[in-house]
Amino acid sequence: MTTPAGDEPSLASYAAARGLPFRPSSFALPQATQILRHGFMREVTGLVRGDLPGGLDDAWLAHVAYVYSGVNDLKRSPFTLLLIEAPESLSFAVRVLCHDRDLSKLDMSNPDSDREIIRAGDRSVRLESEEFLSRYALFADSDQDENSVWRLFAPTLIHWLNTEAPKDFSFELQDGALCCFVPGSLTDPDRLDEFCAAGARVFKEVSRIGEADGTAKAVDPDSRRGQVERALAEQVFNEPPKNVKAAAKAFRRGLFISDEAWRLGAEAFFREQSAAAGFERIEPGEYRASHIGTILPGDLAHVARGADDRTWRDCYLVITDNTEYDTMGWTMLVADGRSPSPAADGLPVGISSDRGLVKLNTDGRSLIFSTLDGGKRDRSAAELGAFIEACRPVLAG
């Protein structure tokens, strides 16, 4: 289907011609894979969500740009982007990046690298196709099983990427989501159809591997995640640490608390305190995969799932950091499928912007409690406990 003569093609006209809802701007695009986590701000200048060409159910198609600081002013890196939920990929994909070689180094970089507890660079993966390697750069997370990458890139997919994929096409598979993108803002309806079909082609391969792999594999003790688990297991706390600093001191190996000790301390503090409150820590990627449509402020740092009881059933305790300011972040509770009880009348509405003040919001799927906290190095048991107690009466009813 093409745009009628005389009409300027746009994402809005593309959506209208296919009976899809369109938003001229939106802040509600999930930061699902690393291209969506770049910059200190993201601008969405057009968003379509629905059943897209190629058999994609409830996917996002958007014009988006991330904003970053240039030498003298702000810069923007614009993309046309397709986001597809792929929870089955959690069983085999930590992070797989297939980037067109014309992308800039910044576009290809991992904005999460500085937030990793133990840092490790990505691995370059080589395939037996010089034609592929001349067009694409294939990287994987240091914890990624390379055999799974080779299984994903079957000869048929490699041939399609070499000969039929749209110009400048790239994709990322991470945290249960598939994100396909090309630089610039596509508006021609035929090219948008081709782009959606390309995403569907990759998604077909992702689904094939996910169905075959089934459940997630055990953690490799030599992986980055395995090293974190070992470091945490070696430090036993007689009681939950009273704040992040107290936990970080336990991992200190000298006069000063290193950055790694701070990160281990933040993880240990959250695990100990969330467990004491009746929650079980889960991987942030697992939460992202099941809550791709739940938009929260900040960068996801820690998540724990509530015990299967009346109060915390289907609840997630979530901590997010602010990458621009180390001294602020958010403590949140996401309660799926809940409606406010009469006890909610005492809570102000919205997302909290005051430290210690608990606010209540809803996105139609979940209740979202939030409070501003002191950020990654200044969270305390007293504040976390007060927050949980403020949520309890609303959910207990």
Keywords:
397 residues; alpha+beta; 9-stranded antiparallel beta sheet; 15 strands; globular
Morphology: globular
Alpha carbon gap, first and last residue: 52 Å
Task: Name the beta content range.
Answer: 25-35%
What is the residue-averaged pLDDT? 91
Strand order of the largest sheet: 1-2-3-4-9-8-5-7-6
What is the β-strand count? 15
The structural class is alpha+beta
The tally of domains stands at 2
Would you list the SSEs in sequence order as H and E?
HEEEEEHEHEHHEEHHHHEHEEEEEH
- Sheet bearing the most strands, described? 9 strands, antiparallel
Question: Percent helix among the residues?
Answer: 25-40%
Please work out how many helical segments DSSP would assign.
Answer: 11
Write down the Rg. 22 Å
Give a short synopsis of this structure.
This protein is of the alpha+beta class and about 400 residues long. About 30% of the residues lie in helices and about 25% in strands.
Task: Describe this entry's structure for a reader.
The chain has helices at 11-17, 105-108, 130-135, 146-152, 155-163, 189-213, 224-234, 244-249, 259-276, 284-290, 381-396, and strands at residues 22-23, 41-52, 56-69, 74-85, 95-100, 123-124, 136-140, 170-174, 177-183, 279-282, 299-306, 315-321, 329-336, 359-362, 366-373. It is α+β, with helices and mostly antiparallel strands. It has two domains: 11-213, no CATH class; 235-396, no CATH class. A hairpin with a 3-residue loop joins β14 (359-362) and β15. The protein is globular and about 60 Å long. The model is unreliable at 1-6 (pLDDT under 50).
